[in-house]
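User: Okay, second chain of the day. Same drill as before: sequence in, structure tokens out.
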Amino acid sequence: MLLRFWMKLVGADSLHLDQLAAAILKENRSFEVNVHLAKCLPLPAENEHSRPRIDLIVFLMDLRSQHSVETVKASLAYVDVNYFLGKVCFLAVGGKAVKHQTIEMYTLKQLADSYSSPLIPAELESTERRSVIAQRLLQILKVAAGLVPGMSALVLSSLIRPSFKTEIERC
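Assistant: Same drill. Structure tokens below.
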């Protein structure tokens, strides 16, 4: 019997959510994963009593869309604080098109840091890049769900948090 784990992808950009979910489900793995998509939180109250526990929440933000970031910020209030101990990560897309960015990567880094959660810069424009990100999220899910002996979600979270330093922080 395969173990079953649940991942929630949250973000305003439904195209990227759909593409990422498809990439995650395509990857080979030794466990079953169910991916649920949501444009925002909270989830509707219907069927609340029968919902499975979520092992990992991934918030997807597009650097080209203020609406995307505001949607994630509003959704964060509905996440139990215990999830921020290694069961939440932020994914920042759209960083490659610097001239089209409306949000600075540093702003998203501050947001992720304020929730003690990792920020993963990602490009989802090609199948290969989506596959790499899907593999990385599945590895994070394995740790968050307790499948990796000797590694806790909290330890992993501290190891994968990138360190973007600004000029002010370097001084």
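The longest strand covers residues 4-10.

User: Thanks, on to the next one.
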